[in-house]
Automatic annotation (TrEMBL):
Domain of life: Bacteria
Biased segments, Low complexity type: 27-51
Region (Disordered): 26-51
Name of the protein described by the UniProt record: Secreted protein
Annotated signal sequence range: 1-19
Record keywords, A-Z: Signal
Organism: Micromonospora chalcea
Length: 159
């Protein structure tokens, strides 16, 4: 029964996420997107002693991670299989990657919102029903905070 509830939620999230991407066409291959998205955060902060990345750089890298995770979600929905397990893994990876990225930044509004979002994504990823766990007011607030901070920084996001 829970698996049956997850599919409509995932499909809705995926469709809304893709609609928010604007005029960009979805990639037909997930491999190169993952490589470029994971390369961006590490190239934005080559070493811990380097200066913190700006909110604009942080938001640009976060949006790439977000798009990569949406692509993985779409692949999971289309491929079938255990959506609960796949959704949990995607949310956990999203939380880990956003946490790592936020660690390269200072204490700006975008970094704070990303840290809150990462914590919520991690909690949802480890829940028994990740799809339902991700649909909570704290994660929604963190998403809105990221979008607001990134819009102010000049690098809009669609979390």
């Amino acid at each position: 029964m829970k698996t049956n509830r997850i599919l409509p939620i995932l499909l809705t999230c995926a469709v809304l996420g893709l609609a928010a991407c604007g005029d960009e066409k979805p990639s037909t291959t997930a491999g190169p997107a993952a490589t470029s998205a994971s390369a961006t955060p590490s190239s934005a902060a080559p070493s811990p002693s380097a200066a913190a990345v700006s909110d604009k750089e942080l938001c640009t890298a976060a949006e790439k991670i977000n798009k990569d995770m949406r692509a993985k979600l779409m692949t999971a929905v289309q491929s079938g299989g255990d959506l609960t397990k796949q959704t949990g893994a995607i949310l956990t990876e999203l939380g880990d990657r956003v946490t790592q990225l936020a660690g390269t930044a200072g204490d700006g509004k975008a970094a704070t919102a990303l840290k809150e979002f990462a914590a919520e994504a991690g909690k949802a990823g480890s829940a028994a029903d990740p799809g339902t766990a991700a649909d909570n007011p704290a994660m929604e607030k963190a998403s809105k905070d990221i979008n607001a901070a990134c819009k102010t920084a000049g690098a809009p996001t669609t979390f």
